[in-house]
Amino acid sequence: MDPIKSSTPSQQRLTSALSASYIDSDIRNALAVLDTRFVENTAESRRQLRVDVQANVIRSNAQIIRDFSQVAEQLTRIGTALDNMSNVVSAMRIGTSTASAEAAPILEESTQLLTQKKVIEDKQMLLSAFTDHFTVSDEDIAILTSSVEPVDDRFFNILQNVKRIHNDCQVLLASGNERVGTEIMDEMVKHLHAAFQKLFRWVQRELKTLSMESPQVNSGVRRALKVLAERPTLFQNCLDFFAEARQKILLDSFYTAMTGSAHGSTVNMDYTTKPIEVYAHDPLRYIGDMFAWLHSTAVSEQEALEVLFISQDGDERKSSIADGVQDALQNEPWAGDPAEEAIHWDPRRGLMQLVDKNLSTVAKPFKARIEQAIATQESSTLTYKLTNLINFYRLTFLRLLSSLDSDSTLLITISSLEEASLRQFYSILQDHVRSVMSDLPSAPANLSPPLFLLDSLKDLTLLMKSYETSLSPLEEDFTKILENALDPYLEGCFQLSRELESANKHIFSLNCILAVRSTLEPFTFTTTKQKKLQDQVDDLISILVEYQTGIYIHKSGLHPLMEQLKQWEEKPKIQAPFTPEQLQDASFRLDGFLSEVMDAQTSIGRLASPAFQTEVLKRAAGEFIEAFRRVEEAVMESMLDEYGEEGVRMVWPRTVEEVQVLLS
């Protein structure tokens, strides 16, 4: 019998239990439950284990049945509730369908109304924005146009807003809203015109009371002028009005400076400073003070106008009138295409034009007084100093008004005064020359320069010193003065010299030229004239050397020997050029000459320059010694063989060396 087949069920269970793994979670859980219920391991407890387990299973099943019965009851109640709810929902669905059918027209109408509301709100917002952007309130219009309202920041802000609206109308015109754009633009143009007229009148009132002497100019006036610059006509009218007011003020100021009181008034004398006319007896100071006043006033006017028109410091940059004028020129309809030609307004030139215009009324009395002072002058030196003074201020004003070129009234006036002064100067010179030439004196006995030449040189020295201190001492500019202030007197000296005899006329001419040259030497701008004089000096020195040499040759007795020597040199040398008697006679005269040589130099002693005296005598002595050497050589050549050296020395004892020592 197979042991496996004959195994009992208990054995199978045992085998199954033994084959089970103790790490199986089900077994472990079962053992854990068994451990809690199997308290005592007795036979009774082991027999009752199955019964107890089954009893517990039954009790558990019964409890489950009771719990499920409660669940079933609750599900029944829920089912009933769901049926009720389904009925209610069906009823509500029917009611809702009915209500929906009835409310559909209302909802549709409500949707349309909401859509219309949105459109209206958008239009209202657009209208509000359009109104805010393109309209001006009545209050703002009153501030802009009413003469009662002040010109303040509100005015300028509103004016700026109106200009913005006017410019933005271009957008309306471009977008097809021609009618609205045109109407608004026309309205803004009216407001702008009224505003600029109000601003124009206000600026005129302010300029009438504006004090240019104040270091701080009203910023409101600057801002108003900057805005007004956008209308060139109104702006120019304001400038003309301002210039007219300044002309009256400056003219009164000029008369006050001249006389101590305003024009046409004998009151309000200013005793703190002396009037300029107090110094009318001193033309140099009188004219200098007038020019100093004019220059000081022009500079002050320039500085004040710079503050008013050009200053761009800090926040004032926004109020630069120059910028406003430039913008106005660029925006002019006839300005052309900016891309083709840039239109530029020079603020500096415009400012200096205004300065020149403000002082134009002063120019007439200013010129009349100076012309009168010049016309009464009889001194050439003083007149020339006045000319240099006027020239100095002409160059000063030329730098100040350099941007105006030749369009300046002041520059034209000062230039005409300089020309008048020069004419008077040359007229005085010519009158004096005519006076001297009409009654020329005789040359002084000592052959010194005549008094009229010395006087003219004194005047010329003063002229040259004055010219040297001028701003542009150029040599060519002084040439004409030399031609009028020197050459006629020098020519008069030459005319006097023609009346003298022999060397005296050359010595007199040389003394006059040397006096002139010594006067010119300190001044570099007379170099050309000095060179011409030096050429004349050289010629006269040569003439005097020739003259003095002739005296030496004649008084020494060499002259007949020189004539015979000349003939002997031209003919074949057949016989001696000199006879012993001629040589003895010549030697006797030579000894007398050498002992009285100082007497032969008397005429040269009247030369004014000792250096030239020495030069003339030295050169004359040199030429005389050379002539003596020629004679001695001829004597030795022709007589040495016949008479021997002793015989020759008996008739011709002097040697070249001895004569040279005695003459030196």
UniProtKB/TrEMBL annotation:
Signal peptide interval: none
Record key words, sorted: Golgi apparatus, Membrane, Protein transport, Transport
Source taxon at top rank: Eukaryota
Keyword Transport: yes
Subcellular localization, as worded in the UniProt entry: Golgi apparatus membrane
Pfam families: COG6_C, COG6_N
Subunit structure and binding partners: Component of the conserved oligomeric Golgi complex.
Family: Belongs to the COG6 family.
Function summary: Acts as a component of the peripheral membrane COG complex that is involved in intra-Golgi protein trafficking. COG is located at the cis-Golgi, and regulates tethering of retrograde intra-Golgi vesicles and possibly a number of other membrane trafficking events.
Name of this protein: Conserved oligomeric Golgi complex subunit 6
Organism (species): Pyronema omphalodes (strain CBS 100304)
Lineage: Eukaryota, Fungi, Dikarya, Ascomycota, Pezizomycotina
